[in-house]
């Protein structure tokens, strides 16, 4: 077992002529909550897509638990379903739940790797315990849920496959402060009780850094700061640019 569950080394990702990630390195410590903060367009979503094999690397490599999962050498990179089955769960930006499916069906979609029906039922009841509101709404279409409930469903769906690490893309986006707090409390609980490592990217720097042990700051495709999260909260550059002080 490696100390860092995810190790990203000097990765570069391009969209045509645009360098979206300009050679960045990040280590996500096992068992902890680690965050990446940055403004709109900094490259945060691109980074998460690269980790799950949805954007090819022009340079660099990504290891998960000491094993290569993505590389600029295409033949050494794994397909997304293989990456997910190794234990990486992604909660995409904008809580992309299946709007026309019920809450329960959405959760079942997250269990596509599980063959055992009893195990799927067990995972579903774990999710209903974690998110009681989802149990109440289990037969409702996902489209009828509030934004916060959809975010809970997106997290629950990712947890159905019992990932070792949860990647979250702006879990607080567009939600009211009280709902954001509730979502972050649940993320902390999943990390603490289920021992799931968390890597979250956020524009809401205060919320993300307060929940994390370690943080990175990204500006236009480059990591400009990396430190213990509590120190970043006190860092004058972070306070000025990201905490509105
Ligand atoms: P947001 O908060 O808006 O999600 P982000 O930090 O996640 O921002 P990315 O979505 O990763 O940023 O975008 C990084 C850069 O790459 C931006 O300049 C964006 O316009 C560009 N970009 C993203 N996706 C594509 C694409 N499919 N084709 C071309 N350019 C893209």
TrEMBL record:
InterPro entries on file: AAA+_ATPase, ABC_transporter-like_ATP-bd, ABC_transporter-like_CS, BCAA_Transport_ATP-bd_LivF, P-loop_NTPase
What the record says about family reads: Belongs to the ABC transporter superfamily.
Name one matching Pfam family: ABC_tran
Q: Which SUPFAM superfamilies match?
A: P-loop containing nucleoside triphosphate hydrolases (SSF52540)
What is the phylogenetic placement of the source species in the record? Bacteria, Pseudomonadati, Spirochaetota, Spirochaetia, Spirochaetales
Keyword Methyltransferase appears in the UniProt entry: no
Choose any GO biological process term that the UniProt entry carries and state it. L-amino acid transport
Q: Indicate yes or no for the key word ATP-binding.
A: yes
Q: Tell me the Gene3D superfamilies matching this sequence.
A: P-loop containing nucleotide triphosphate hydrolases
Membrane-spanning residues where? none
Q: Which residues form the ABC transporter domain?
A: 6-245
Protein name per its UniProtKB record? ABC transporter domain-containing protein
Q: Name one GO molecular function term.
A: ATP hydrolysis activity
**What are the record keywords, sorted?**
Amino-acid transport, ATP-binding, Nucleotide-binding, Transport
């Amino acid at each position: 077992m490696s100390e860092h569950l995810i190790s990203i080394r000097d990765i570069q990702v391009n969209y045509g002529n645009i360098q979206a990630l300009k050679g960045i390195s990040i280590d996500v410590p096992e068992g902890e909550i680690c965050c990446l903060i940055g403004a709109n367009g900094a490259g945060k979503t691109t980074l998460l897509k690269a980790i799950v094999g949805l954007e090819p690397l022009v340079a660099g490599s990504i290891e998960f638990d000491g094993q290569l999962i993505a590389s600029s050498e295409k033949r050494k990179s794994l397909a997304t379903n293989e990456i997910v089955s190794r234990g990486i769960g992604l909660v995409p930006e904008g809580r992309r739940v299946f709007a026309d499916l019920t809450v329960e069906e959405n959760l079942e979609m997250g269990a596509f790797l599980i063959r055992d029906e009893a195990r799927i039922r067990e995972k579903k009841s774990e999710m209903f315990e974690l998110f009681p509101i989802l149990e109440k709404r289990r037969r409702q279409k996902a489209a009828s849920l509030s934004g916060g409930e959809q975010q809970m469903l997106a997290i629950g769906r990712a947890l159905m496959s019992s990932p070792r690490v949860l990647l979250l893309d702006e879990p607080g986006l567009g939600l009211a402060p009280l709902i954001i707090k509730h979502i972050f409390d649940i993320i902390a609980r999943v990390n603490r009780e289920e021992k799931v490592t968390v890597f979250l990217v956020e524009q809401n720097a205060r919320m993300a850094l307060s929940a994390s042990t370690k943080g990175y700051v990204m500006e236009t495709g480059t990591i400009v700061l990396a430190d213990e999260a509590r120190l970043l909260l006190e860092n004058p550059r972070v306070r000025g640019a990201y905490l509105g002080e």
